[in-house]
Amino acid sequence: MRDLIQRKISLQLLSLYLLFIIPVLLGAAGLYIFQQNVLTQTAYQSDLALSQAVALEGGANLRAAVEVDSELSTSQAARNFDLHQLAAIFANSAHAHPEISLYYICDAAGNMRINYPFVESTIGENFSFRDYFQGALKSDKPFISSGRVSTTTRTYVVSVASRIINEQGKIVGVMVINLSLDKFSAHLQAVHQRLSPSSEVSIWVVDYKGQSIASTNPAFAPLSSIQEYPGLILTANYALKGKAGNLIAHDQNRDWLYSYVPIPEAGWGIVVQRPTDITFATLADFQHGLILAVALLILGASFFWFMMHQRIISPLSRLASAVSMISGRPTHVIHTKLLMKDRTRKDEIGNLVATFYVMEKQVRSQFQKSDETIQAQFSTLDAIMRSIDEGVLLESPNGRIVYANHVFSRAIGIPQHELTGSSLQTNTLQERFASLLDNPEAYRAVVEPILKGRKSRITEFQLNGFYKAPGRFVNARRDIRMRFFHVRDAKGVLIGRGRIFEDITKQNEVEKIKRNLLAIVSHELRTPLTTIKGFATSLLEEAEGEVDTHWQNYSLGQIVAESNRMADLVTTLLDMAQVEAGTLKLYPTVYSLHTLLEDTLASIPDIHEKVDVHIPNDLPLLYIDRRRIQMVLRNLLENAHRYGGADSFIEISATYSESPSKQQTGLLISVADTGPGIPSHLMEAIFDRFYQIESGKERSSNGVGLGLAICRGFIEAHGGRIWAENRSDERTGAVFHLWFPYTTIYMQAQAH
């Protein structure tokens, strides 16, 4: 081994370099790891101690409130339900406990009987639905509620409630005190002011429902949403489960250290949030100093390396460049200035250059013979690949792309010459391909086993869009079937892999339409037929005995209702067929928008109270097919009620605008709800036939996914437009817009 090193200059250089660099780098790495652990644990313990201190004081305040509520609920005045004496007790307690914002008693039915300070508006109001009322009735101990807004004082509070038991052991009421959350926030602010102004520490108090009830962050009022801080949500959940610890998370484009502890008295949690760049500033300074020292060390070693570079590395680099230039130069590389300095050397470098001279002559001879054959074969292959409609991708065994036809190149938006020589793992190509995939993770999970030969070589996936040309992206979802195949030589040795991408979007759409039609026939028609048959059979059986007139009328009503349901479904299918065939015939009349909306709302009594109409009185008349447009409005209102939820509120507005260009003059009607809104990638898909947004509920028995498709057909038949978007104000929800052109407002209306 020693003789080998002495004969090889490269090994001597490498040995000396490694013997000098490696021990120093290992020592520096060990020192950094040790110091990092020490400083990190110190920062963790500091924030955790702060969290525990806040939790202890918060728990003490809650225990004091529990003691006050328990003492009041067991007092003789409370047991006798002596309201006059209780009012005096409340007044005395209020002076001793300023953190309590309200005292009140509810009877066993939940009705408020007395409060202090006195607020007449809530006397007699029923609070039995409150969680603290129900919790107090079920527990022998005082119950602490989650954060909420008091209906009496209109402030942010938490409630402590205890049941009141009289001398006979009967529950006669519930004693409730409200603790002001402003006191919690003021205490947190006092703690925050004692910290360093540059620490950027935020302290959060989270109740057992996961609500932020107090915080030092000025951007968050009590009960504000903490969804924009995933790390805060995660650590709050840990604290609510009784755990304590630290966690680093990335929120708001910044890394944060979260320290969390529980408040067991109420099932709450305390979370302390601090940016890691400030928390670990000392560690960063140490790291910078260590990096500087290592850099100086590497600089010294590099000087040594540079001294050796001229004799070893540089000649090898020139020789490597000469090898790469063999096929690119018409003259011999050995005769250029590139290797002139090395041709006269007598050591290993000189021998290598002489060998290269012989090799260059042989390689050029072989290149000259095979160039024409290879070019002809490649031209034939390219012509074949250009004649097919599928995308084709050929790879070498190590994953390098050797060929991509124009279909694949155009769809992915990267020229063919840029694809050749790269791989699907190249950053640019990988990012482009991932941006087109509907689910990149699922695609990789399926493709990787196929490449290893463990699954079928055919798979299907979806693209969010494709390129018609470089820079021209088309946002349209496509279904792709990809087939893998292996390329082997005459001896069976693997020399490459191929992928064929086939667009099966139209094929899948046809299959989907067939399945949906089958579902309609098997479900939407069979269900009312079964109901009709059942009631008709019952009527026939009852006809042989004594006839129950009430049951007979009910059965006939159900038969008529189910018959109307079938007729509506058939009418819907016929209307959809006429829309698609372009044979829809309109029967327009002059109609007022106010009257149209009144008739529509009257036909949907369930949501009449949840609709707010803002329609100007000076709107022009519409010349429209009343039945079709009323069906459109009904569909939009029912959809807003169905997908917006039980608490959704619907707003209807309309505006009329005139323009010098009559083509831009028109009437715009907007229907907005306060539901969750519509995902941006589904804004167009919801108007497709048989499409229904998944809402986590079972499929509606009276919906087949044709409502919005028919709405679009009816509106476009009037020359108008319909589209959807999410609300742009501070509220969530979706907005559907109907636009009627000039021809449906002026020309036709004035003519009639």
CATH architecture of one domain: 2-Layer Sandwich
Distance between the termini: 108 Å
- Class of one domain in CATH? Alpha Beta
The biggest beta sheet, please? 6 strands, antiparallel
In CATH, the topology of one domain is named: Heat Shock Protein 90
| Strand content range | 15-25%
The number of distinct helices, counting runs of at least 4 residues, comes to 20
Q: Which overall shape is indicated by the principal axes computed on the Cα atoms?
A: flat
Overall structural class, as computed from helix and strand content, comes to alpha+beta
**CA radius of gyration:** 39 Å
Helix content: 40-55%
Q: Which SSEs are present, and which pair or pack?
A:
Blueprint: H1 2-7, H2 9-73, H3 76-79, H4 83-96, E1 100-107, E2 112-116, H5 131-138, E3 143-144, E4 148-149, E5 156-165, E6 171-180, H6 181-193, E7 202-206, E8 212-215, H7 230-240, E9 245-251, E10 254-263, E11 268-275, H8 276-279, H9 281-324, H10 348-386, E12 391-395, E13 401-404, H11 406-412, H12 416-419, H13 427-436, H14 440-451, E14 458-463, E15 466-469, E16 472-474, E17 478-488, E18 494-503, H15 505-543, H16 549-581, E19 589-591, H17 593-602, E20 611-614, E21 622-624, H18 626-644, E22 650-657, E23 666-672, H19 707-717, E24 721-726, E25 734-741, H20 747-751
Parallel strand pairs: 20-22
Antiparallel strand pairs: 1-2, 1-6, 3-5, 4-5, 5-6, 7-8, 7-11, 9-10, 10-11, 12-13, 12-18, 14-17, 15-16, 17-18, 19-21, 22-23, 23-25, 24-25
